[in-house]
Amino acid sequence: MCFYDVAFADIPFELSEMYALMGYSGKYKPDSEVQAIIDDMLFVMSDVCKPRIGYKIVNGQVIDKEHINIDGGGGGGVLLSTGRIITYAMHEAEKFAIFTATAGGEFDAWLKAVEHEYDIVKTYLANTLGSVIAEAAVSLLMRRLEADCAAQGLKVSNSYSPGYCDWLLVEQKKLLSVLDGENTGITLTPSCMMLPVKSVSGIAGAGKNVKKRPYGCAICKMKNCIRNKNQQ
Question: For 187-196, how does the pLDDT look when each residue is reduced to its tens digit (9 = 90+)?
């Protein structure tokens, strides 16, 4: 089990990712006033944002076309109803990494302060920034996971999270149960909303024959997914 506090400067944040999530593509960018607000927010992030990432590698196996069974925190098995897309992407896996990543509670507090300014533009930009930071934290986590698995002669699949590709959001409860409370400080509300809000949980497969397949944007029904932003 590996958990890290990381500096904002260490996550692979790309401004182009934020622009794309805002609906801009190619040579198009927000106007200078909006860019100035974003620049100010990024300047604040070095002090405010303290991302946290972590993962636990467990044994498990794909048991049919829609389910993966993994070892649970208490020694028992946990059955994940991941659906056909995700299950197929991991059918060669010998082990599974359960992970969480978050922009952190400090970012959460800053976001609430921005929301209390009742500035619609700033609130939108702050929320978008948090989403991109959380995804960037996952990218950093995956780099570290791949290095860890490579040392064991294992390859790693793409990562997938509840809410993507017909995998129900409620299954986040199962993922966090596997981490035995070691989940970078993330908790769930009764409706399975993650706190801090800019957080991600998920799974990746590892094995000698695992292949990193393209995300199934063409067949996934989730049209507002950050990974599907270039398909819209």
Answer: 999 998 999 9
How large a percentage of the chain has pLDDT more than 90? 77
Ordered structural domains, the chain, with CATH: 2-231 (3.40.109.40)
Helices (H), 151-201: 172-178
C-beta of residue 133 within 8 angstroms of C-beta of residue 107: yes
Handedness of CA 228, 102, 91, 156 (dihedral sign): positive
* SS3 state of residue 9: helix
> Three-state SS for 207?
strand
Predicted TM-score of the model (pTM)? 0.88
Q: Are strands 187-188 and 194-195 parallel, antiparallel or unpaired?
A: antiparallel
List phi, psi (to 5°) of 183.
-135, 40
DSSP 144-162: HHHHHHHTTT-EEEEEE-T
- How confident is the model over 52-109, as pLDDT tens digits? 999 999 999 999 999 999 987 655 789 999 999 999 999 999 999 999 999 999 999 9
> Strand ranges (DSSP E) for the chain?
2-5, 52-62, 68-71, 77-80, 95-102, 155-160, 187-188, 194-195, 199-207
